[in-house]
Backbone:
């Protein structure tokens, strides 16, 4: 997880073994911590109520009312680069 003073919400970094993803670490349904959820079929599942957020787009399923913000991320060697 990454925290930046200029961002109100923490950013979750996920490495799937092939790709790296970065998205807000807060469920839009009840502000639950997404980093406690499981990754399934290209989405992070909120551990509180099961809302799913697509790792590439942030698009949500119910009960989440809105998508989460995603940030471009890439690997260069052993370094993760984020575009904030």
Residues:
């Amino acid at each position: 997880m990454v925290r930046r003073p200029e961002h109100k919400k923490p950013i979750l970094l996920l490495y799937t073994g092939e790709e790296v993803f970065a998205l807000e670490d807060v469920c839009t349904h009840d502000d639950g911590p997404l980093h406690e959820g499981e990754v399934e079929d290209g989405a992070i599942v909120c551990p509180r109520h099961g809302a799913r957020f697509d790792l590439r787009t942030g698009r949500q399923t119910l009960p989440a009312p809105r998508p989460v913000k995603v940030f471009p991320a890439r690997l260069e060697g052993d370094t993760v680069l984020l575009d904030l």
In short: The chain has a mean pLDDT of 92. The first strand starts at residue 11 and ends at 15. The two ends are 14 Å apart (CA to CA).
